[in-house]
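Q: What changes when NDP is included in the input?
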Amino acid sequence: MKKIAVLGSTGSIGSQALDICARHPEEYRVVALTARSSREKLFEQVRAFRPEMAGLTEPIGPEEIPEDLRFCRWMTGKEALRAAAAEVDADQVLVSIVGIAGLQSVMDALSAGRQVLLANKEALVTGGHLVTELARKMKKPLLPVDSEHSAIFQCLQAAGGNQPVKILLTASGGPFRTWTKEQIRNATREQALRHPNWSMGAKITVDSASMINKGLEIMEARWLFDMPGDRIEVVVHPESIVHSAVEFEDGAVLAQLGIPDMRVPIGYAMSYPKRMSTGVSGPDLFALGRLTFEKPDTDKFPALVLAREALEAGGAACAVFNGANEEAVAAFLRGEISFGKITEKVNDALEKLVGLPGTCIEEIFEADRKARETVRQNK
Ligand code: NDP
Ligand code: MG
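A: The predicted holo structure follows.
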């Protein structure tokens, strides 16, 4: 029986992980659940999975906890995250919080010697060197949940120790792949939230539409697989069936295929090195007929260029890229700025904050704070 703590359990990834736990009650015991503010959903999950500990990062009074749920230890604020990541006795900690908020939890879980199942890409984007160093020191390699990174990880399992010469990181191209620059600039919230293939939380869906998500994923792959950015190639693949691939020196390419359903990579991280049923069946290749591949259009999606520049710049540049994007996406979702402004603001923050150091977690949080401030200042 594996004990699993789920941080961000009310989100898209968190709830799908709990679906898998429900399919395999004899193999997984849920020991901790956390959310930010979705209390009703969290109550439902606590009722169903009966964890030892549950918490909301936003305040909730003890009298607001339904009586039948008082069997478990309730916590609030950052303490709730820390307890779920490091205090509760768990074999696995799934970090499926969104944003840089996940960085501290990943560090806490690793410091406590937990196996981290990593959905939260922002932790690696902002603090990649700290996270990977700690994972190495604790001998707890990160298990990727992001579908592309899970695909790469799965391909590497079949590589017999051979190092790839190149990573082929696939991208659906998002809802605006075939739009003009002008149309993209003025896209509405509803249009940006309508992803053609994947059903995900709001922030990552907007990131997919701007292709900032793919920029974040280049950074994520750089740290997970210790691969320089110039050997990570983005391949637009609108069908989202090939989830990524790796190329070896003999010219062989290994890829992982499947329908776009996050339960597969979540389940693989949970059951690694084994596989288990997830409720998902394989793709029907005959029905699909063909798979297509394109080069990304960096004129329409400059975020990819910015991401590579940030990676190249080093220091806290990737934390600035991420922080500016988080702030700009939140402003876009509140209806305060246009879609086109998101990438502009990321560019602006990178130009203004070039050279900030990012050697320790405090400097990374400081760069994040400055990036957000820069975005807020020039509306
Ligand atoms: P969601 O927005 O659906 O869920 C986020 C979860 O984290 C919710 O439980 C939310 O609580 C909680 N949360 C949000 N902000 C904070 C915070 N500041 N502190 C603590 N908890 C917080 O996100 P997703 O599930 O879509 O994504 C989670 C992570 O996984 C992201 O990093 C994303 O990039 C990555 N990912 C997601 C994929 C997907 O298919 N969804 C695919 C690949 C990667 P509440 O409900 O109360 O707001
Ligand atoms: Mg992905």
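Observations recorded in class: The mean pLDDT is 97.
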